[in-house]
Amino acid sequence: MIKTRLLNNRIEIPSPGLGTYRLGRNDEEVSRAVRHALDAGYRHIDTASFYDNEMPVGKAIRESGIPREDLFVTTKLWGSDILEGRIERAFDESMRRLDVGYIDLYLVHWPVKGRIADTWREMERIYQSGRVKAIGVSNHLIHHLELLLKEAGIMPAVNQVELHPYLVMQELQDYCQGKGIVIESWSPLGSSKIPLLADPMLQEIANRKGKSTAQVILRWNLQKQLIPLPKSSDRQRQRENLSLSDFNLTADEMTDIDRLDRNLRTGIHPDAITF
Ligand code: A2P
């Protein structure tokens, strides 16, 4: 059984979730990978309008036959929709493409310079309309959150950021934890751009535990109260990434993994994004 956590508005969120960015080369592959993940036990699927896959993700969810209330679906608002003043319309379009009744979590995908506070006001309005169970942000660093919180009426439930043992961002973790904002990790396995899975120290811990390096990283996420969103289109690896309950990392092992931090980003820096 997949575990759940509580968001700051008492909504349950299953952890881990399935990341879906570039999950397949076409809609059919995306739908199949999501279907396999749901069969394997995933109950939390993370997409975004930018991923251009909301339709096949929604289709797999509808065809799974799993009761809607047992599933958790996240999508995200893209920056150009903010700049073009079409936040409400972008939300409606995501709703239509997903076609799953409601969205569990709606996130501001990236901070848009100069627009952070007013974007959040519109997110609050969408939340108050009852079509989404929770709202949050993605790729927001402390200085972005400070701007947002100056004028916010509702605390973001989530901040989804690139986070893995080579990019720990402990200060951001502590800040969010202090505010009751749950951090979700995207590219928790470091993506194919960096050799995180071949890290000798992680491999040593994995060998000691009889688990894979990926499982050690995901377990580290859970023990740090992070919600990892591993992406895999492979059935076997999807199952592997859910099988995290039969071992524990010791406090020393957790610290050793924390110390791998080298502030290494595989994606764009949140202050450098353009739309
Ligand atoms: P695959 O889909 O073939 O399983 P990202 O960091 O961009 O989300 O991508 C994660 C990468 O890690 C993907 O290339 C995915 O490939 C791979 N991956 C996912 N789970 C595992 C695992 N358990 N072991 C090794 N590689 C994995």
Global Rg: 18 Å
H-E string: EEEHEHEHHEHEHEHEHHEHH
The CATH topology name reads: TIM Barrel
Q: Using the alpha-carbon principal axes, give the shape.
A: globular
Bound molecules: adenosine-2'-5'-diphosphate
Q: Considering DSSP H and I runs of 4 or more, what fraction of the residues is helical?
A: 40-55%
Report the CATH superfamily: NADP-dependent oxidoreductase domain
The CATH architecture category equals: Alpha-Beta Barrel
Mean pLDDT, nearest integer? Answer: 97
Note the total helix count: 11
Number of domains: 1
Return residue spans where pLDDT drops below 50 for at least 5 consecutive residues.
none
Structure class: alpha/beta
- Sheet bearing the most strands, described? 8 strands, parallel
Task: Kindly provide the name of the CATH class.
Answer: Alpha Beta
- What amount of the residues lies in strands? 15-25%
Structural write-up:
- The protein has one domain (3-258): TIM Barrel (Alpha-Beta Barrel), CATH 3.20.20.
- With 275 residues, the chain is an alpha/beta fold.
- The protein has an eight-stranded parallel sheet with strand order 3-4-5-6-7-8-9-10.
- Helix 5 (116-128) crosses helix 6 and helix 8 crosses helix 9 (213-223).
- Helix 1 (27-40) links the parallel strand 3 (18-19) and strand 4.
- The chain has helices at 27-40, 54-64, 79-83, 87-98, 116-128, 142-151, 170-179, 200-209, 213-223, 235-240, 251-258, and strands at 3-6, 12-15, 18-19, 44-46, 72-77, 103-108, 132-138, 158-162, 182-186, 227-228.
- The protein contains eleven helices and ten strands.
- The mean pLDDT is 97.
- Bound molecules: adenosine-2'-5'-diphosphate (A2P).
- The site of adenosine-2'-5'-diphosphate (A2P) has 16 residues, from helix 10.
